[in-house]
Amino acid sequence: MSGLRRKYGDCQRADGNCAACPLVKYDRDCHDSPITRLEWYRRGKGLTQKELADMAGVNIRLVQKVEGGEYKAENLTARNLLNMADALGVDPRKLL
Length: 96
What we know:
Elements: H1 37-44, H2 49-56, H3 60-67, H4 78-88
């Protein structure tokens, strides 16, 4: 697994892992912006968007659109939701 890109320039974590940062709450990042459950779990696993997309067999744009709020996880096809949940090792309901 490669290192995560820092989400913000002022990130205080060398590894860029928002899920491990004490300034982050479950649904809000350190800048108090919403963070999707998909991004939360992906960062918690130390995966880049590309790595998750490859593991789940989906296009990276799908991951980007869900994390960016353009698509909602509950509107994904069952296959894509299940593949991403399996890649992250979480119950699919946790991504909804």
